[in-house]
Amino acid sequence: MSTRITSELDQIHRTLSENSRRSDRSRIGQFLTPTAIAQFMAGLFQQDVEVARILDAGAGAGMLLTAAVENLISAKGHLQSMEVVAYESDELVLPYLKNALARCRAACTRAKISFRGEAQAQDFVAAGVAMTETGLFAEQGKRFTHAILNPPYKKINGQSETRRLLDAAGMETSNLYAAFVWLAAKMLEPGGELVAITPRSFCNGPYFRRFRLALLGMMTLRQIHVFESRKKAFHDDDVLQENVILHAVRDGRKPKHVTISSSEGSDFHEVNVRSVPYEHVVLPHDKDAFIHLVLNDEDEDVMHRMQRFKTTLDELGIEVSTGRVVDFRAREHLRPQPETGTAPLVYPCNFEHGFIRWPAESDKKPNAIVSSEQTRDLMVPAGYYVLTKRFSTKEERRRVVASIYDPERIQAPLVGFENHLNYFHAGGKGLSSNLAKGLAVYLNSTLFDRYFRLFSGHTQVNATDLRKMRYPTREQLAHIGSHVKNSIPEQEAVDLILEKVHRIDG
Which domains does the chain possess? Predict the structure, then answer.
């Protein structure tokens, strides 16, 4: 074709962006797909078919379906006819979507390919659940050879009709994007291909466990593309999540290798590509099916080095929990400064050089919680605890930031940990001194941080994520902890200590 139809849509996209407020698009989880990303995604499709049936769920202005049509036409394979079904419930966008379908029809006519396009102005979740129902009286909907989507990024209200429909269908997920991808995968015929751009958050954590298991059970992973820059992929919208592009085929076989690629932004001028063994992407015997993204030789080295640590928290006799004090719920019991009848209250702002400094000099957070029968369940007895921040800022060097609560520094029989913290403990009580210090050193190491980032693409650190990690033995942790005096060693010293443990036990 002398004129690419995706290029023709560029100006239309810009017009739509100008005519719709960014806040309105964000409210419904809608982020328009840039042309370069749409073309890259469509280029991942591999199969050569005579009859193509394309699904675009949450189609927006039609950029993705247009790129898919354009790609199939230019492939010059055995394609004879094409059908596109596009779901979009935003009435403002529908005219643009219908215009895109008309342009696709014209392009197919020029290429002597039969074309049929439908713009379905309805909720995709309701339609998808109905089309994928099983049972004696269920009416099976059509199946697709290709699914391409940029689904909405929006949490599902627990009381909504969407939540009820998904629950009834056995699809447990907390965000619309996972529901869209899950349904699209179910609507593919055997051998059908799925390409979707989503936040990276589905790769780990308990909220997406059922989704990961279902997706990996139905589909064979072919490629995952990672955007190294959080801002550049969707520079026209306020997208803070790290995004990935997923390519998978509906056959449910476990592949030997998965292609992991990456680029800094959406221009794709420099794309790093590597073939990674599947067992490095989804670890064998991992019941939660965390997805690890190994982008380079350094990541591969981190995978190998972490394999030397095989001990689980259960084997260490250590548990990790989320801080019990939710300050807005316990407001009447909080005090700005310690006084008679109170216990220390620890926040992330109390972290200083690897130890808890209390009370805090700032008056932004309360320093104490009243110790009473009403608050007793919110606190733990004095002891050595290792705390990590549940949320790290994008500016922090490490994703996991750990600090030690030292009962020798803070004289109090009880202590409360605020809900933005995770705390490591032994059956609700403190750890031994050297064990706690060694654990904090390990959590603050570059090795731990690099490995954690292989499966976690967001700034939240869940207790579940920390339980999934492997740790040194108790003896190794105690040995590491013996190096800690008045503060956690600097990062370089921490890494040298861990490397020494590697050499001794390797």
Answer: 5-13+33-295 (3.40.50.150), 313-505 (3.90.220.20)
